């Protein structure tokens, strides 16, 4: 048996996936009405958190935030010892680590997780879920968690799943908002879309792959797309936005990062060297001393 606490859109999708896979599933939500569709499909509704916790040894929680997690489970902490808590609540890596410590104090075995999908995609094979924390718990629960999608385990550090989740969300947000900037620049999403799809496939994704290799090696030289070249190009985009009267707020910070890297004396390096500015935002500007090679790390 499994208990799912929290029946917002994501929590309902999670519980629904367990029910669909044939698992005996108990559900609870602060507002009981959200349980009705799941009960109609075969889930058992718990009348209280205490009843929900008693019903199963595996508790899956998906609530608004970590404060809500504690608010729900603290009143029944005396009933938690020996149970497994799989926390699919979104949050910070530091919050995940703190929750792991709290769970240990309660006698819980803890696994922190992140769902990399919108609710309708939960349960589909291509949907990824990241997990971190107690490895033995992950191994024991992996068949069960397979009902939600493809499981990836990131290690004993409870904060690592949240960290990877946020890293990928950052790529989504930056890419999508940049696409919206482009739509605004040309005045149409439909007209730009086919070119954007080709650009992302044939230029952007290979550039990301190349940047990943350069970041890990620390070698940013021998590039045909340098920081200086991109700084000049982005300056033109900012100016074009001003001329057309659209917001340039998204691009100005990127231009400032490029300008900072140029001022540090690395204008001839590849665009991937921007990693050094992002990783060390407080590093002083200025070119390396004459005759000394530019440091890569």
Protein model, in words:
The chain has 297 residues and is of the alpha/beta class. The chain folds into 2 domains: 2-163, NAD(P)-binding Rossmann-like Domain (Rossmann fold, 3-Layer(aba) Sandwich), CATH 3.40.50; 187-279, Orthogonal Bundle (N-(1-d-carboxylethyl)-l-norvaline Dehydrogenase, domain 2), CATH 1.10.1040. Helix content is 50%, strand content 12%. It has 11 helices and 8 strands. An 8-stranded mixed β-sheet has the order 3-2-1-4-5-6-7-8, sandwiched between helices. The N and C termini lie far apart (51 Å).
Quick structural gist:
This protein is of the alpha/beta class and 297 residues long. Helices cover 50% and strands 12% of the residues. It contains eleven helices and eight strands.
**Oligomer classification:** single chain
Question: Helix count, per DSSP?
Answer: 11
In CATH, the topology of the largest domain is named Rossmann fold
**CATH class identity of the largest domain:** Alpha Beta
What are the key terms here?
N-(1-d-carboxylethyl)-l-norvaline Dehydrogenase, domain 2; 297 residues; disordered C terminus; alpha/beta; elongated; eight-stranded mixed beta sheet; Rossmann fold
């Amino acid at each position: 048996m499994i208990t799912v606490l929290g029946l917002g859109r994501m929590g309902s999708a999670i519980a629904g996936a367990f029910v669909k896979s044939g698992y005996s599933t108990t559900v609870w939500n602060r507002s009981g009405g959200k349980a009705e569709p799941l009960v109609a499909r075969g889930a058992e509704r718990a009348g209280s958190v205490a009843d929900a916790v008693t019903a199963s040894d595996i508790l899956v929680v998906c609530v608004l935030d970590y404060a809500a997690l504690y608010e729900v489970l603290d009143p029944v902490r005396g009933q938690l010892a020996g149970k497994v808590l799989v926390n699919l609540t979104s949050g910070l890596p530091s919050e995940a680590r703190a929750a792991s410590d709290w769970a240990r104090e309660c006698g819980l075995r803890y696994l922190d997780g992140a769902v990399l999908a919108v609710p309708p995609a939960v349960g589909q094979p291509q949907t990824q879920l990241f997990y971190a924390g107690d490895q033995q718990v992950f191994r024991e629960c992996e068949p069960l968690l397979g009902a939600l999608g493809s499981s990836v385990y990131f290690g004993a550090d409870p904060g690592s799943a949240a960290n990877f989740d946020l890293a990928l969300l950052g790529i989504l947000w930056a890419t999508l908002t940049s696409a919206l900037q482009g739509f605004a620049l040309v005045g149409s999403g439909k007209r730009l879309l086919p070119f954007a799809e080709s650009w992302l496939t044939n230029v952007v994704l290979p550039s990301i792959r190349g940047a990943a290799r350069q970041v890990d090696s620390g070698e940013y030289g021998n590039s045909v797309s340098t920081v200086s070249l991109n700084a000049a190009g982005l300056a033109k985009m900012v100016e074009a936005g001003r001329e057309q009267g659209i917001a340039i707020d998204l691009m100005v910070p990127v231009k400032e990062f490029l300008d900072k890297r140029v001022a540090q004396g690395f204008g001839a390096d590849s665009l991937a060297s921007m990693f050094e500015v992002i990783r060390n935002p407080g590093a002083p500007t200025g070119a390396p001393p004459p005759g000394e090679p530019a440091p890569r790390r």
